[in-house]
Structures are given as structure tokens and as C-alpha cells.
Amino acid sequence: MSGRLQGMVAVVTGSSTGIGKACAQIFAEEGASVVINSTVKSSDLALEVVKGITDKGGKACFFCADVRKKEEIQNLIKYAVTQYGRLDILVNNAVSGLSNNLVDQDEDEWESVYQSSIKAILLASKIAIPEMIKVGKGSIINLSSEHGLLAGRNVLAYATFKGAILNMTRQMAADYGKYNIRVNALCPGRIVTERKVDFLKANPEEYRRQPCLYPLGRPGTLRAIATPALFLASDDSSFITGHALVVDGGMTIQLQDTIAAPLEAGITEELAARGVKWP
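^ that's the sequence the OP posted. Answer follows.
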């Protein structure tokens, strides 16, 4: 690794598993000191992430905080600065709560998704930005989604707030660029997280169908989303702010009939024609 984040300090929310974990790992590989975050429920997994990083010679520590709660987010950022002396990078990744269609959307679940996404980004960034101003620069990365760009079925709360994150990102970038603080968003497509692996194993037809939906013929790996996050966190993207970087294997560039064609042709035949090997 090239040490692109050498000497920097990063906080990654919701980093006990999935995209957050992958971002934390690659940041540490590139020289950053990383604060791993999760709730109490996932603390054992978070500590495993810390151990995995430190065993390889990286710098990482764990702080338990529920990003839906203001005081806990304040303590998270304060801990990072106390532990490592500064804050350069914030990845707002954590999200929780369930979505449904409008009529069936539970109000409490709506509130949960709002608090873990929009409110958490608001609070964490509000507390982090003054620390970045002290450093003289900073990078904030907000996790949106392809659902922030296009509608899906029965994901009202998730899609609504992922879309809101994009404009929130632009506004933050416009307001704090004068402090050399860059704010960008990542819009992942289907990334095979630990949770998604379990889903695909339980739904073999979906497992076979996925490659047909992507021009690249495959869903993304965790590394495939962590490396763009590294780019946005590093000085390699020093003149990029307010941008939504779509990392979706081409999913959102297609017309609906383009997506439907391989499905209508038959999944097995389409995969064979492409030469895609998919269990």
C-alpha cells in the first residue's frame, strides 16, 4: 500500500461489518488511525475488526455509540480526537430500520431510518467539522445508495433518506469548502456484504438472477466499494467535492427494457452466453 492516509485519523460509523468494516480496513492499510464504531449489540464484531487491523500493524480502536443519539455521537468524535489528537476523515455509514410501501410503512421504523441516516449525518458532521477546521482540511463521506437515485419497490423510508443524503452532501460541500473540507457521497449498487451473502444463500434464484442485472455481470465486492471510499478520503480527490460517486457495476445506466431482456431470455442461457460463472 502507498500510505495515502498516513498520519490521518478516521471515524467510520457502523464499521463492525459490511461496507463500514471494509472502509476501516483499507483506511488502516493506507496508514490512517481508525476509530471503529458500532452499538453494544455488535461490539464483539467491532472488536474483531480492531484486532484484525492491529494484528497487521495498523492503528485502530473501538468506541461503542448509537449514532441515533446525540450525546453518544458527541462522545464518539471526542474520543477520536482525544485518542489520536485530530480528525481528518468521517464516514457516515451506519443505517438501521425497515422500509415498506407508503401505506404499510410503520411510523416508528420511518423514524428509526431517519435518525440513523439523516440525523446521524447531521450530528456527526456538525461535531466533526470544527475539528477538521482545526486541522485545516477534512473529508466527509456520506453513504447513499443507488436507491437514492432511482426508485425501487417497498423501500420508502430507505430510498427517501438516501435521496436526501445526496442534497445534504451538496449543501455541506457548498458551505464548508472554504475551510478545505470536502463532502462527497457514495452510491453503492448491490454489494455482497455478510448480510447479503446470507440472503443469497437463502434465495438461490436471486443468486442466479443478480449477474443479469449488471452490465459487468456481477455484483460488487466489499473491496470494490472500499477503494472508491479511499479515493474520496485521500488527497487524490483533492478537487472533488459535492459529488455523488456511483459504484454500481452499471446498474443505473440502463433502460428498463435492457434489464428485462436477459431475464426474459432466461437466466441460465444469458449467463452461458456471457461466459459468466456463477454458482
